[in-house]
């Protein structure tokens, strides 16, 4: 089958966008052809020659060695000037039609909300349904939607919150009317979708998001990160560096870890607040920033972590937590991160009281150091929970729905 996964942009660090590439990998692992259809942007910056895309005949270019790590189709796109800055795909129904004519798409999966991708694909699918009804076409693509609604946007961003409410009111019902399957990334999102009267049998509530490439490394030898040499233990955060990620909270964790012994904090990521993070971390030798995004590097950081942590003020997906659990590494997250949905409190990690619950996290780390048998027990339970949670399982579920 030929399957397109559509997202606003690609990313090494942002889970919502990373998920699209992970799903492409899963379809490829199952022997299907799959592409990431996305904008010219990767982590907010152009990833291809913009002029080449603009001058292309169909409004897109195919990139085999794409920075996303999967076969990609980069389309004509832009970014809104009025806050919140939103990436959009230009003339997307026309471009998608050209891609469909070239590749014969059997399914289109759209990831993320609050941008024009879902509504444009829904409109395109509606036209395909009409053409099928009157016999103009013999088939239409299967339409899957992964909305990642993420609850409320942070109150410190009222413009973004208002635009999301408007989008959910005007466009989300239209999109949900056209979908064949909706993938909910949490039980809360499942209930939110039911409020829009989406039939229960159309919703797949799914925790199967472990990157299959990361999973393949779990059973092999991985060296401890060289940057952690000289430290007895470290805790880690992997993800974007922006204001929503509570970078000040991460620095406070490092300060407290330093007082507990020869420990460090490894932060793997990049983003708009990276320079601010560097300034905050200046002079703190036990703060290690790693910008390398290779799968083996990420897997190594996870494997040797005492624990993983997410202190985000707002994280709508949080699937990186599943990769920690897959390696048997306990994880901590606040209720403002969807990562908490994947964790059973006190079993394979902990639920923090808030994004600023530094005390709760460091006390837990202290307990894991004092009681290694507790850490071992949590590790076993984490591994058991996540062992079947690779994205290949989600891809299989979607393909079964398509076949039925």
UniProtKB/TrEMBL annotation:
GO terms for molecular function: glycosyltransferase activity. The keyword Transferase applies. Residues 230-384 form the Glycosyl transferase family domain. Keywords: Transferase. The keyword Transferase applies. It holds the Pfam family Glycos_transf_1. This is Glycosyltransferase.
């Amino acid at each position: 089958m030929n399957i397109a996964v559509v997202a606003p942009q690609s990313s090494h660090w942002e889970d919502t966008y990373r998920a699209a590439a992970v799903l492409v990998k899963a379809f490829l692992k199952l022997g299907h052809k799959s592409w990431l259809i996305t904008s010219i942007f990767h982590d907010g910056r152009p990833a291809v020659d913009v002029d080449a895309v603009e001058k292309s005949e169909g409004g897109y270019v195919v990139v085999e060695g794409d920075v996303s790590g999967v076969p990609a189709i980069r389309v004509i796109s832009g970014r809104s000037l009025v806050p919140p800055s939103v990436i959009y795909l230009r003339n997307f129904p026309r471009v998608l039609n050209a891609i469909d004519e070239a590749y014969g798409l059997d399914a289109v999966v759209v990831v993320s909300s609050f941008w024009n991708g879902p509504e444009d694909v829904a409109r395109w699918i509606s036209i395909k349904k009409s053409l099928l009804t009157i016999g103009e076409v013999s088939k239409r693509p299967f339409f899957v939607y992964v909305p990642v609604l993420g609850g409320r946007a942070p109150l410190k961003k009222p413009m973004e919150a208002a635009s999301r409410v408007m989008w959910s009111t005007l466009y989300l019902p239209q999109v949900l009317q056209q979908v064949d399957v909706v993938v909910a990334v949490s039980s809360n999102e499942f209930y939110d979708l039911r409020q829009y009267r989406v039939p229960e049998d159309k919703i797949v509530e799914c925790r199967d998001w472990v990157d299959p490439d990361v999973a393949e490394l779990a059973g092999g030898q991985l060296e401890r990160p060289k940057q952690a040499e000289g430290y007895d233990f470290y805790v880690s955060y992997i993800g974007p560096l922006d204001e929503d990620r509570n970078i000040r909270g991460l620095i406070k964790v490092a300060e407290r870890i330093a007082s507990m012994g020869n420990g460090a904090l490894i932060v793997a990521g990049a983003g708009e607040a990276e320079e601010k993070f560097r300034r905050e971390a200046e002079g703190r030798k036990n703060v290690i920033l790693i910008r390398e995004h290779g799968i083996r590097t990420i897997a190594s950081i996870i494997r040797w972590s005492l624990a993983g942590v997410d202190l985000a003020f707002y994280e709508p997906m949080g699937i990186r937590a599943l990769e920690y659990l897959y390696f048997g590494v306990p994880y901590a997250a606040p209720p403002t991160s969807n990562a908490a949905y994947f964790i059973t409190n006190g079993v394979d990690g902990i639920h923090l009281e808030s994004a600023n619950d530094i005390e709760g996290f460091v006390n837990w780390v202290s307990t894991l150091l004092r009681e290694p048998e507790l850490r071992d027990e949590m590790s076993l339970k984490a591994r058991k929970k996540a062992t079947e949670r690779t994205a290949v399982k989600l891809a299989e579920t979607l393909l079964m729905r398509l076949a039925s």
